[in-house]
Amino acid sequence: MELRPYQQEARQAVTEKWNNGDKRTLLVLPTGCGKTIVFAKISEDCVRHGDRVLILAHRGELLDQAAEKIKKSTGLGCAVEKAEESCLGSWFRITVGSVQTLMRQSRLERFSQDYFNTIIIDEAHHCVSGSYQRILQYFSEAKVLGVTATPDRGDMKNLGSVFESLAYEYSLPQAIREGYLSPIKALTVPLKMDLTGVGIQSGDFKAGDLGTALDPYLEQIAVEMEKVCRDRKTVVFLPLVKTSQKFRDILNAHGFRAAEVNGESRDRNEILKQFDAGEYNALCNSMLLTEGWDCPSVDCIVVLRPTKVRSLYSQMVGRGTRLSPGKTDLLLLDFLWMTDKHELCRPADLVCEDRAVARQMTENLAETGVPEDIEEAAAQACEDVVAQREEALAKQLAEQRRKKAKLVDPLQYEMSIQAEDLSGYVPAFGWEAGPPTEQQTTALEKLGILPDAVESAGKASLLLDRLHKRRDEGLTTPKQIRCLEKYGFQHVGTWSFEQAKHMIDRIAAQGWRGVPKGVTPSTYTPPAPPETPAWDVW
Fold first, then answer.
1. Model confidence over 226-259: pLDDT tens digits?
2. Which CATH number characterizes residue 315's domain?
């Protein structure tokens, strides 16, 4: 099986991390991007080098799925370490193992501590728990790969205590842009649901309380769904089985062909097959279908289980992001949850890292009241936030003089080039949180950036990388940006090196006394640039 370009890049990146001495590394791929295929190929590579490989998961469906994909993509069979089944004595070099089984000390002690050379953890956002840690500590010398869908910052901080590095990350927007996942349109439904009385457990809402709080709104939700979901294949996530069953009946009363599945459903597989075949157009579940189930033709997701856990939210939405013949997009229904407990995951959290941009996007979606492509909505929100930050920065800079006249403040630079990832950067691993190195400080100063205002080594690394990429792409230097913004030009960070140089030369030609005649800096758009030379002059 031939891997997609990003899958091959991920495979190589993991190998490089291991070869460079990072024994525990992390791979992030959105739901629907074939993470199982990737670690199947990585497992094959390990086996070819003589390794025994253990693939860990917390659910039987994930183990079965992994074994099936490994067999299909590599031809290699898998032993099983679960309940009464054991890999000991098997000639297979790959084992799929249940965490619930292997966490028991009596089970672990059946193995020598060097029995497995490589451990791969599926749905790695679970691995901070004690059960996973017990297994990893026992096989302490094994190389470890964690595989997960898009984690939130909290997850990354937690995962940073387990893993030494991030080998590779492929984002949801990238996958959509490159045609591997379906475009997502978000629709904010103007229905305010009061959750202020719902309790909190383990950092999220109590499922039991949610069911009670949701009940009064189910009829209204069904009415809203009638308007936009009748011609779509819809999966609805709810907090409780009884709530899920009740909502199934309500949807049927409103003209849907709705079914419900839960962990106790004896005919679950049959219902899922019927839904896949189109006999039902709505499927209600109480968080059963978040992992290990695929139905690519799903083109509408209704999240009636509000959560602050981004990985859980991504899993729910991910049930509808796969491509399918005739499918044009995924419709994601968003509701106005009223709560004073904490910020909930919203469609913006799928594409925005910066919290300010996410909040702005959420506000914009609520105002429009029509389905909006989340990438376009994020881009607009980013522009809005950049404009707000530029305004605030302008006021700040008007009140104080620059510390060093020849150097550019990094915050001003970030605003000028509209770098959302720089503005919203948060260190994930230990080395990133430390102060910038002397080498980084020198390099930043040489490139025109004031290093005193760069707070961490991770931020310095990201900033230097961006500076080098902009140089390679022939874009403006920090000094050019500083020079032209001083004369009132806007968004100089988006200009090319040559465009900026041309304008600076015109200003210099008249003795730096102001902008050329006929040029209005606030509205000026530079003409298309000629061929771009190196940055040597500036």
1. 999 999 999 999 988 999 999 999 999 999 999 9
2. 3.40.50.300
